[in-house]
Amino acid sequence: MHGTLFGDTELFDDAYMQDPYSVYARLRKVGPVHRAKTPNGLPVWVVTDYDEVRAALGDERLAKDADRMRAVVDRKSTAVNGRSSAPETLAANMLNSDGLDHARLRKLVVKAFTARRVEQLRPRIEQVTEELLDEIDGKSGDDRAVDLIGDFAFPVPIVVICELLGIPLADRDTFREWSRALVGAGPREGVRHASMAMGGYLMQVVAAKRAQPADDLLSDLIQVSDDGDRLDRLELVSMAMLLLVAGHETTVNLIGNGLLALLRHPEQLAALRADQELIRGAVEELLRFDGPAPMATMRFTAEDVRIGDVDIPAGEVVFLGLASANRDGRRFDDPDELDLTRPLGGHLGFGHGIHHCVGAPLARLEAQVTLSRFLRRFPAARLAADPAELRWRSSVIMRGLESLPVLLG
Fold first, then answer.
1. What is the CATH number of the domain that holds 376?
2. Backbone phi and psi for residue 10, each to the nearest 5 degrees, phi listed first
């Protein structure tokens, strides 16, 4: 058992992984704050309602400092199962820092993800997308399904982020294995192995780029550190890992979840095909409806914090339910309906506050290009499996399909 919340409903079990939204709906009726346990037994608090989640995302009392977080998790893990958590030697990045440290790290990468800089990547994203669509078209048949996760949703973001960072694309399948382990809900040993393997690989890449810089983001970060900034080798490797994993995992699942949602809502799909100008708003609605990040990465209470009418003591682990907040009927009309014409703004698909996803402009552009071009190329595409038979990956912080079989003709 992974922590009964009320009645016989559990959070983070397999039933939740396959359909979190029915669980969220029942939790919001009870209140905005709940106790649970993660799949590895860690006791946590989960916030589910929109107002409370949005406020908590900007609350400095909910901290992310890596060293202090590790101490909290170690204490709680030891109390539960007598074991400390696996050492996280590569957590020195902006996602796991607060205050001035966070600001220092974030400023080094934010320029690479401005709307203007990202827009310059459009031709390359369009080229990669068209090449993949050609490949898919060549292997499909009237009765032969293609997997739009492995054949389409995964390759576009990994190509883009590898080229942006300056990492060899030839190793993309290895990256995918490491990344799936890092964001999955598997055993700590698997996470530790993937973390150390990816870290060792990236240390070699950093060393090579320090010796021979290139025109890429990782070389830029190295140059900044060599010019006197406090970014050290471990921070460089940790930042590269964060950008590599987050830079493709979220977008893979945004594209995959978005395609599934559209294929399951033919009237919305028809509207988008009839008016491609809807694509910008469509991506925002898909982020709200079934986004790639159901939970914000975990925080801990640096002091006692009151959320709603619940007092959470200092030293507790807190998860903020982005997906639940995005289906809160007190914020969104008909929240369980997909509506591509819904007014823009308000969803928390990329978070909020100082930890708002720095790569959001790139993810949006990739989703807009891939979805619009796929629908234009394959107007008769349809699911090749019963939606109830599709399997979702087991992960607390990432929501994505194992595969998405589709018939194209």
1. 1.10.630.10
2. -125, 155
In angstroms, rounded to a whole number, what is the distance separating the alpha carbons of residues 41 and 57? 24
- Runs of H (alpha helix) within 97-145: 99-110, 115-119, 122-139
The rounded distance, in Å, linking the Cα atoms of 234 and 359 is 21
Q: How far apart are CA 262 and CA 284, in angstroms?
A: 13
**CA nearest 322: which of 134, 84, 50, 116?**
50
Three-state SS at 318: strand
E strand or H helix at 55, and its extent? Answer: helix 50-57
Q: Does residue 228 contact residue 94 with C-beta atoms inside 8 Å?
A: no
Number of domains in the chain: 1
Full-model pTM: 0.90
Residues 198-238 pLDDT 10s: 889 999 998 999 899 998 888 888 887 555 555 677 878 88
| Cβ 322 vs Cβ 348: under 8 Å | yes
CB count, 10 Å around CB of 27? 24
Q: Please name the residues in contact with 28: beta carbons below 8 A apart, sequence gap of 6 or more.
A: 48, 49, 324, 328
